[in-house]
Amino acid sequence: MRTALLRNGVRTAAAALAFTTALAGATTADATVRGDYGGHGRHPVEVSIGASGIHAPDTAQAGLVAFHVKTDDPNGRSLQALRPHRGVTMRKVLADLTKAISRNPATAARGISAVRDEVDALGGAQVTPAVSETFTTPIGAGPVVLLDFTAFLADPAHPVTRTLNLRGSRRGGASEDLAAFPDSIVITRETSAGPRFDVNGLHKAADNVLVHNSSDELHEMALQPVKRGTTDAQIQAFFGGNGSGTPPFTGPSLGLGAVSPGRTALLETHHLPPGTYALLCFVPDDKTGRPHVAEGMHKVVVLT
């Protein structure tokens, strides 16, 4: 299984492997900590997001940080974790993010390029009341801003955020315990045809997914249920055209929020029903301003 997961590129696989080794070490060091909602050896940071705002602790331990995210919003909610670079204000980040969600492609391209260069996108969670998620990623000490991205899309002028301060830099020890490796690996990469998902070993709804961004752009990995029998050609026809066709989706989006180039995150979905899903990236391209999904960044998977 390890060989199969890592067969598509030594450099990007090595980065993913290094992260899974850290996860394995944390699990070995404190296996009793992990409960029903993941965390891989850490007490997850419990985050709830909904109409009442974002509820999370003020502080948590730096290092390998797990966020367990849930919502009571029947329509689902999307949380994004961000860390502005030194000297960059969150106000500036939000102003550029507002440009990035513009319907004007040129404005969107300028906005997402600025966001890419001024912030570490640490991942996030797209959740529903029935499906919570845990995303785990290495983060050093310092502030992390949690953004209600659903609320931001609806009203960028009034962003809903909460700041979490990470302290220390505790890490787990090394381990080669293969049982702690992820069930699957998804690498976001650039190809001659455009950005793509390179999917390895994703077959079950209960699988945890290691996502590594090997490209030079921001990418997310939305996971949205679609009608049985849906093909990638149909997804492309819908998003690549004028969007006037019948959408193939059967429910709200789940999945992982945006991740910066070179970063890795582990996604665990809790109580995800088996079925047919599409991996999608709606982040705008930094040159064309079009959503990456319209440029072919989608992959249909059947999860048992």
SSE order and pairing:
Blueprint (H helix, E strand, L loop, with lengths): L1 H4 L4 H20 L15 E6 L2 E3 L3 E3 L1 E9 L5 E8 L5 H11 L4 H14 E9 L4 E8 L2 E7 H6 L6 E7 L16 E8 L2 E7 L8 E5 L5 E7 L6 H9 L13 E6 L4 E7 L4 E6 L17 E6 L1
Parallel strand pairs: 1-4, 3-9, 10-12
Antiparallel strand pairs: 1-2, 4-7, 5-6, 5-8, 6-14, 7-15, 8-9, 10-11, 12-15, 13-14, 13-16, 16-17
Helix pairs in contact: 3-4
Q: Main traits of this protein?
A:
single chain; 304 residues; alpha+beta; 9-stranded mixed sheet; 8-stranded mixed sheet; 6 helices; 17 strands; 21% helix; 37% strand
Task: Describe the structure in brief.
The protein is an alpha+beta fold. Helix content is 21%, strand content 37%.
Q: Main β-sheet, in a few words?
A: 9 strands, mixed
Q: Would you tell me the overall average pLDDT?
A: 87
Low-confidence runs: 1-14, 21-34, 170-179
Distance between the termini: 18 Å
Shape: globular
Number of strands: 17
Strand content: 35-45%
Q: Summarize the helix and strand pattern as letters.
A: HHEEEEEHHEEEHEEEEEHEEEE
* Estimated radius of gyration: 18 Å
Spatial strand sequence of the major β-sheet: 3-9-8-5-6-14-13-16-17
Number of domains: 1
So how many helices? Answer: 6
Fraction of residues in helix:
10-25%
Backbone structural class: alpha+beta
Signal peptide: 1-24
Keywords: Signal
What does this structure look like?
There is one protein chain. The protein is built from 6 helices and 17 strands. Strand 1 and strand 2 (about 55) form a beta hairpin. The protein has a 9-stranded mixed β-sheet. An 8-stranded mixed β-sheet has the order 2-1-4-7-15-12-10-11, with helices on one face. It has one domain (about 1-170, about 180-304). With about 300 residues, it is an alpha+beta fold.
